[in-house]
Input
Amino acid sequence: MVGMSFQKKATFAVFLFPALALYLFFAVLPLLQGFWLSTTNWDGTAPWTPAQMPIAEFEDRIMNRIRSEADRVFLLKYYVRDEEQGTYRKLELYGLDRYRVQYIIGRTGYINPDFKNVGFGNYVDIFRGKIDKRFFPERYRESRFRSGDPIDSFLEISREEFEGNLLPHLKTPEDRDYIQGIYKLSGSAYALDRERIKQDELEIQIALSEIAGLKDDWEALFNDALAIGAENRRDALAGRMAGIPAIAAGTIAPADKAIMEESLGQAFELGRIKGILSRDWYLERQKMGVLLFTALFVVFNVILVNVLAMALALALDLKMKSRNALRSIFFIPNVLSMIIVAFIWQLVFTQLLPAITGVDQWMMNPDLAPWLTILVAVWQGVGYYTVIYLAGLQGIPQDIVESASIDGATASIRFFRIVLPLIVPAITISLFLSISGALKTFDIIFALYPSNSTSMGVDNITVNIFYDAFRDKHAGLATAKAILLLLTIMIITGTQLVLTKKREMEL
Amino acid sequence: MFRSFRKLSAVLIIAVIAVGFVAAEPVQLTMSFYKQEITQTLPKLLEAFTKANPDIVIMTEIHPNDGGATNAAAAAAGKLPDIMQQPAYSAIMENAKNGYILDLSRQPVMSKVIDGAKPSVTYNGKLYALPMDFAGIGIIYSKDIFAKYRLNPPTTYLDLQKVSDTLKKNGVTPFAGLLKENWSIGHFIEMVHSSMLGARVGNNGIFKFVADMNVGATSWDKIVDINALFKIMDWYKANMASNAVEMAWDQQQAAYIKGEAAMMVQGLWALPNAKDNPTLKSGFIPFPWSNKAAENRFFADVDSTFTVSAQSSPAKQAAALKFINWLASPEAVKIWTTDIQLTSTFKGADVSSMPSPFVDLMTSVNKLGSYPWVFSMMPTPTWEQAVKNGAHGYILGNMKPSDIVAEINSSWRTNYKK
Output
């Protein structure tokens, strides 16, 4: 009995206590510090204690407010008076001395306005939506035409586009009549009537710029004609022309005047059609935002990784000559560095696929980008989970499977009634790892989209936290998001563990 | 005997000191730099410094693109590199405000810097960085392609449209794109916006605009015709290859070097290396956004600077300051302009050995003046998120001009810290 007690104490002292101490130091303490940071407005760069401060200000705001002589002496060990700079400058701080310096300066009432307590303000802002709107899903209109686009982009409009994304958006019967009058269905597309729109902007500008009397006025006249056309105020065009000094003075040759009237008439028509197209030719779309993309990524990543890993494990469990080689091949992506993985897939998306399919845009297609990201993540992760499922499969006693087979159980019955129930522990651990891993994914997105994940809409929560902290300098807010992510992971994986463990017990 | 012993002791002491001196470890400094294009050439500068100062060795680490983020993390940990290459204006102001960098006002090297470069590194009346190069963003064009189609470098927007039209009719892409990443289109939108602003209110008006934006007294679209700005963006994209959004730095360079495209809107950091492309002849002109030729000036300003960390030990700071002061020496200036191929902000620096596009830049700036880099003066989160990602989102079709303007206004006001 005494021996047991000693053994327990020794076990605690040698194994458990150090583990607990390390856990407290490396997990709990940073978590607490993180929570504290999440209650500040820290920008990620401002120092908690001044890095440098003018001599007079330091003595007035810090030194004169320290009551203890020992504290004063201690502080001056780390703050050197630099006469050349005219400042007190903080030296590098290590260990507990850092906290003592913070404590001493904190007691003087010094607060850096860029590093002050804001209570639960960051959490409130998140829940009230008072943060970057890219965080939340949002509907938006994708313009199919913009005013600076060339004439080639609207000479022909596919029937699907014309009838689906343009006609239904036209506001007035007048606009509708105009567009239906100027575009005629020809085969599978609506073609612009080139009798009415004969010139593009460049041709009109060249014509106007070559009219001697319009030397200083042609550009303003051209832009006004476009704007008047966009507003469909044909009467205003004549008034605008009459106001040109050279016209009023009658110094423009009749031939030039005819060219000018023809060109401005064309500019008016272009302005009208461009005005309508840029306003009413659009597609209603949905931005996923950080939240929805994270959810999409997690759901599809977890499902695909586990289903594919299970399928591969079943295949690799068959008695094939090449199975050991195949196991290695499928596991290799997991061994590769994520940078290499990103490099390989960038080559595939930017070189191989365009060459094979003739489609230029893959990675930078906002519709494809989320799915390509999931594809790479699944490709990289599936080998790891295959190994877990394979281990589970190899733990199943073969005699049970063979007995079922002799009793006439089909392959699907054997799988669902025998194999699947017996590998539930493997499913439990795979789901736990894949869910928590998918929620924390950072490297795949950062490597595939190094400076454009935000504009491509493939920032997940961890990438968003990184950018909040280090690019947008909202470290306090970023830490609040990180704390919420931690809680989310704990709740989701905790629920999953309870449910799958319960299933294990039932079986 | 006693005297001999004293002599022997003295000799021993001197020998020990001498050995100690000879064997003393050199001061090892770390330097971060963000200009990727100088990765191959920067070591030559550092080796020359170490040759002149054998007691100091400088090790480099590259912080490309996200240099600000990396430095922020290092500053928070108290581990800033001893010497940092940083962009002018906001990065300097923010670090100076936090006390992370030394005041260099009293360093002798500062008297050799041209006065026009000093506002870019001034915070509260003190100089916190050494301005190193003056850079311009404009159009790098292929002289060979222009000559082949008998084109003159355009001086107005109409000329530019004509040139592009001719190129397209001859199967040449006008502009080599770089739309996969957000920074180049961020430069473009800022270049046109600042140029429109400068043409309207002059460069002093630009500085007032920045001051007003800092306190929310104006808005990004108040002075500039935003519709005209975005129309130029549309035109620019329409004059690139159809796969321009899939093109990053390497693809842009390749398209220009191979002659598939005749122009690229870039700074001279993107000028293809003459040693690797001896037959490629390039010219450099301001982007002609206006039909009034005199309004088309380079978008140019102080680009990179060097700062010294206030977190380093006094010995390392002294060594770093030695390097900073050495940079104005003729040897250093020569390496900087000839090997590293960046312009110099030192008075009387000889840039005659630089490739002709640099001469184009300096000639144009001296003749017509330039528009300053407002993007360097705005809060860095505004530049990184609202402008770069906003412009990139517009190109990708998921942001509209009004959203971009609203985000820039709001981000600038909330992120500016006095």
